[in-house]
Design goal:
By secondary structure, this protein is mostly helical. Helix content is about 70%, strand content about 5%.
Length: about 190
């Protein structure tokens, strides 16, 4: 028992001795990623690109849906004057058209979700690169992004990173998303 107490005491003293010289100040920064995803020019380019890519298909689906609703309303008005075969055929065509519309809507949803995820992953890599570059250039020891409940404005570097992103976007050619920097060589 005495030997283990001695080991514990020596281990504790060694830990104190190791951590004592590390009493230098640590520079900490906090970044609000949601704000960067919302306000950065690169995020706006991604949103506009996705909208431009998928808006025509969405508009086409809305037009088809309106046409089908009008066709359904017309069928409701004309059902009394139709023969049973005509009514059955018209109802089947309307059901098939609605199924086709739902299939196209599902395809659009799947395509837009996949493209959005791909673009958001690319944007996230770009934002992380910018945050890392900023932190290195300003000699931060640690930058925290998620899990922060409260941070004083003195450690919040979101505005400065956002300015760096805006500067990068201003240097990039118009209409093209800013390409992430290649990784630094060790």
């Amino acid at each position: 028992m005495q030997v283990s107490f001695r080991k514990l005491l020596l281990g504790s003293l060694a830990a104190i001795a190791i951590t004592a010289p590390v009493s230098a100040e640590i520079k900490v920064g906090v970044v609000q990623l949601d704000r960067l995803f919302e306000d950065s020019p690169q995020a706006k380019v991604v949103r506009e690109s996705l909208n431009a890519e998928f808006a025509p298909r969405l508009q086409q689906l809305v037009t088809q849906e309106n046409a089908l609703k009008a066709k359904g309303e017309k069928l409701q008005k004309d059902v009394a004057t139709m023969t049973p075969d005509q009514r059955s055929k018209a109802e089947k065509e309307l059901r098939d058209s609605f199924r086709e519309l739902e299939r196209k809507r599902g395809e659009l949803q799947d395509d837009s979700n996949a493209k959005r995820q791909e673009e958001m992953n690319r944007l996230q890599r770009s934002l992380f690169t910018e945050i890392t570059d900023y932190a290195k250039s300003q000699n931060f020891d640690i930058v925290i992004a998620q899990g922060v409940i409260y941070a004083t404005p003195t450690v919040d570097i979101t505005a400065q990173v956002l300015q760096a992103l805006q500067a990068r976007a201003a240097r990039a050619p118009a209409g093209a998303p800013a390409a992430p920097k290649p990784p630094a060589k060790p």
